[in-house]
Hints:
The chain is an alpha+beta fold.
Amino acid sequence: MQTLHADAPQARTRAEILEELSNPKQYDLAIIGGGATGLGVALDAAARGLSVVLLESEDFAKGTSSRSTKLVHGGVRYLAQGNVPLVYEAVHERATILHNAPHIAQPLAFVMPCYKFWEMPFYGIGLILYDALAGKRSLGRTKFLSKSRTREVLSNIHPEHLKGAIQYWDGQFDDARLALALARTAAQRGALIVNYCKVTELIHEQQRVCGLIAQDRETKREFNIRAACVINATGVWVDSIRQQDTPDKKVSEIVAPSQGVHVVVDREFLPGDRAMIVPHTSDGRVLFAVPWLGKVIIGTTDTPRHDLSREPDPFKEELDFILKESKNHFERPPTRADIKSIWVGLRPLVKPPENDGENTKKISREHTVLISPSKLVTVTGGKWTTYRAMALDVLQHCMTQQLIPANTQSSTQDLPLVGAQSGQPVGHKMSDAPGLAAYGDEHSYVQDLPGAQHQLGGGLTEAMVRFAARYEYARCVEDVLARRARLLFLDARLAESMAEQVGAILEQENGIDPQIEAFKTLARHYQQLP
């Protein structure tokens, strides 16, 4: 791996990482799952000085953690449900994310149009309380907007029956790049972070989990990894790992997966730099329209799903719902022909004992930590905004159970992530088209790589692809075009057209098959409407 400057980002090659993984060693923590939760735990533990290994069977954030609505939010609707502690925690964690990763998480104004006179005071009081819960960490004051002002800031809003709007503040972010920043910051602190390495078996001794067996998907090498504590942070897939813990006994499933569908359209449908939120659609769900990286994300649905596909299909009724609600609120609504990409995420909602799995709108978004008789630690539920609070809770449970030393304290409250460690100002908006700003204070290193002036399309350069391979764990075309750059999510047809160029650069960098055809098939999936 080439070095750019003395202070350039440092990273081990994959061969070096796997070589270290093969060395006999007792880790404090072995974490299964490289999404928001697992990476958050890895960083917090590594920052405490604990020895950590994290294994992800696919790429980091490939599942739920790259398919969110891109919002760092306190959860206005949870306030409506009376869950004040959850909202209080979330608005404070929101501020921490924006402070520690300003290049990939920033404040965003939301406009809530009102069509009935009672909605202005009703929602306004709730949003003023929302501000009050944030206290000094508030992102901006709630304002009441007249009908004319509402039409100025949301120029495509449907004017019929419009009374005005309420503007409040939340945050938005690039979820996959935040996951990557967590991974790289944890690696800086000594954690061994590995993608495309699948856990195939848990190791038990004297009825206790004491490690795991994993296989590198590229080389097929197997690794026997010992750890004082094993954490199952695999999101919607936690029950399959729990089943490995008790292979002779069927476990009671704790996850009720919920499917969220998002569609992406051009910015002409939501000009400006504000998001729109409809708090109560025809069936009681929330609808967002969010400017993000030069496009607009419209969603999301909340539909029970009983299978756990890595690439779930949207249901026709979900797309119909989004387009119908868009028609109700946009003067010129998007049609099926305007959709640039459609993608689906599965949320790991924790199933209460009495839940039948059919009404996910009422299931709590709070997380759950379980410790089995063998001391396997499982964490699931929650949301991106509270990933750090979840990590704190997981490690507190581990200390209480004497699985890790109890004399450690978290230092992640004020721990800048990779890309924000020089203190340089960011100076861009997440609503802008993608570019070098996403790299924060590492942008000059990207510019020093070969191909910095070679544009591939959609703001992606040859140098960015090389940076992804050398420093950001990217192995194949999908890693780059879906999660290092977000082009698959922004414009699937454009991403498909770039696969050959990106693949050629990755093959030079990594020396392995970049899986071009597999990505083209995936990109067509993101273009296919039900």
